[in-house]
Amino acid sequence: MITSKLTSKAQTTIPQAVRAALNLHEGDELEYRLEAGRVILTKRANETMDDPFRTFDEWHSNADAEAYAEL
């Protein structure tokens, strides 16, 4: 059994075994589904339709952010 504790601010650390099983990385979104008194935790699927430029990694530099900050 894998466990974790809840902090006073309702936060917890997702144990490494769970992160590995779900292939979780920084910035990933999680989805919680309640079923019969249990919680099903899954990695939220990437929805690229909301940001069509999300896949263009070459446009994510600090220089680009500065150049387009005033637009």
TrEMBL record:
**Can you name one GO molecular function term for this protein?**
toxin sequestering activity
List the keywords (alphabetical): DNA-binding
Keyword DNA-binding assigned to the entry: answer is yes
Task: Tell me the ranges covered by the SpoVT-AbrB domain, including all copies.
Answer: 1-46
Report the InterPro entries cross-referenced here: PrlF_antitoxin, SpoVT-AbrB_dom, SpoVT-AbrB_sf
PROSITE patterns referenced in this protein's UniProt entry, alphabetically: SPOVT_ABRB
An example Gene Ontology biological process: regulation of cell growth
Superkingdom per UniProt: Bacteria
What the entry lists under Pfam families is as follows: PrlF_antitoxin
Question: What SMART domains does the record tag this protein with?
Answer: SpoVT_AbrB
Q: Which NCBIfam families match?
A: lp_hng_hel_AbrB
What's the protein name? Transcriptional regulator
